[in-house]
Amino acid sequence: MAHEAQAFRLSENNRGLSLLEVMVSVGILAAGIVFVLQALSFCAKSAGVVADNVQAVFLAEDLLQRLEYEAGSTGISQQDAGDRLGKFLWSYRISADPDLKLWELKLGLNWESSRRKDNLILTTYLKNGS
Amino acid sequence: MTLLELLIAGSIFVVVMATVYAGFSSGVFGVRDIEKKIGFSTGASRVMGSINRDLRNAFIFKENQGGLSGDESGVEFFSLTDLYSGKENNLAFSRVAYTQDGEKLFRLCKTGKEALKDDSTILPEEISERAQVKFEYGYIPAGQDEIQFKDSWGRLQPGAPENDESGPYPLAVKVTLTFDGKESFERTIYLSPYPR
């Protein structure tokens, strides 16, 4: 009788995992994996944002160089302009700065990457014939 | 343990292992992809910065000599480049060339008297190992306002006639860098008004 009671207690302690316990464990593991993948996906999106920023700076520099060329050759005057190039929406305003006797150029770029809106705004000065 | 329990346990184990494998493999590929993308961006920034700096400092050596010559895969011109000597940074008179060899992009910079030697022993340095570069040359045709681009500029072969629209330098150089045939970066670099 005493042997049977001891054997029963042993089997109670070593009964293993129930199906419910295994499912809960799998659920927790899956949630962990999803969390890690989400973090990786966030990193991938950030890399995309960096690439877009590089493209935006290239475009801004190109526009500045073009306007610098126009100021040096045909001359520039007060104007607003803008257009879209790929995902980038750019616009600029040239206005006279009477104090400095220069043309003030404000250039803005707007774009969206990974549902995030970004922009780049630059201000510089140009002189006709320079 | 019954056969049914064993089957259920086995199935659960397989599902868990498959999920873990899928998670790790996509994670590893994800990290590689991210590293690649960041490498492309920084590479494009570095290469474009170098080409931009050199082209913006381009100059004419002397009349009818020392203009820019190039085609889709390479370009050569005189430029003022940074020369570090000790603690000082000076501008050096240089002959700069960018050339493509397979997937590799090289920059050759011959400074001082070496710039005028065709048989110089200075070797080009590799500035990108995965970029495919394309150069196009911008000009404004007579009677038009819009800039046009063409695939070559200047005298590539000795004795070949110079381009009609030319002058020694184009108005702008459009540079397209493509990494792994996918990621493309483009710039239109306007040359300083002085060399033309």
What does this structure look like?
- Chain A is an alpha+beta fold and 130 residues long.
- Chain A has helices spanning 2-13, 19-72; strands spanning 79-85, 88-97, 102-113, 116-126.
- The radius of gyration of chain A is 32 Å and the shape is rod-shaped.
- In chain A, a hairpin with a 2-residue loop joins strand 1 (79-85) and strand 2 (88-97).
- The model of chain A has no long low-confidence stretch (mean pLDDT 83).
- The model of chain B has no long low-confidence stretch (mean pLDDT 83).
- At the A-B interface, helix 2 of A face helix 1 and strand 9 of B.
Topology at a glance:
The complex is a heterodimer of chains A (130) and B (196).
Chain A: H1 2-13, H2 19-72, E1 79-85, E2 88-97, E3 102-113, E4 116-126
Antiparallel strand pairs in A: 1-2, 2-3, 3-4
Chain B: H1 3-56, E1 69-71, E2 74-85, E3 88-101, E4 104-111, E5 125-128, E6 131-139, E7 148-150, E8 172-179, E9 183-190
Antiparallel strand pairs in B: 1-2, 2-3, 3-4, 4-5, 6-7, 6-8, 8-9
Q: Total number of β-strand segments of chain B?
A: 9
> Major sheet of chain A: order of its strands?
1-2-3-4
The percentage helix of chain A is 40-55%
> Most extensive chain contact?
A-B, 30 and 32 residues
User: Rg of chain B, please?
Assistant: 25 Å
Number of strands of chain A: 4
Order of helices and strands of chain A: HHEEEE
Radius of gyration of chain A: 32 Å
Give the domain tally of chain B: 1
Summarize this, please?
The complex is a heterodimer of chains A (130) and B (196). Chain A has 130 residues and is of the alpha+beta class.
List its salient traits.
heterodimer; A: 130 residues; alpha+beta; 2 helices; 51% helix; rod-shaped; B: 196 residues; 4-stranded antiparallel beta sheet
